[in-house]
Amino acid sequence: MTLPPDSSVREPACAATATPCRWSDWLTTGPRVPAFEEALAASTGARHAVAFSSGTAALHGAMASLGLAPGDEVLTTPLTFAATANAALYVGAEPRFADVDPATLLVDPAAVGAALTARTRAILAVDYAGQPADYEALRAVADGASGGPIPVLADAAHSLGATRGGRAVGTLADLTVLSLHPAKILTTGEGGAVLTDDAGRAAFLRRFRNHGIATELAARRDWTYAMVELGYNYRLTDVMAALGTSQLARLEAFLAARRRLAARYREALAGHWALDLQAVDPAAAPAWHLFVVLLRLDRLRADRAAIYHALRAEGIGVNVHYIPVHLHPYYRDRYPALEGRLPVAEAAYERLLTLPLYAAMTDRDLDDVVAALAKVTTAYRAS
Ligand SMILES: Cc1ncc(COP(=O)(O)O)c(C=O)c1O
Question: What's the whole-model pTM score?
Answer without folding.
Answer: 0.94
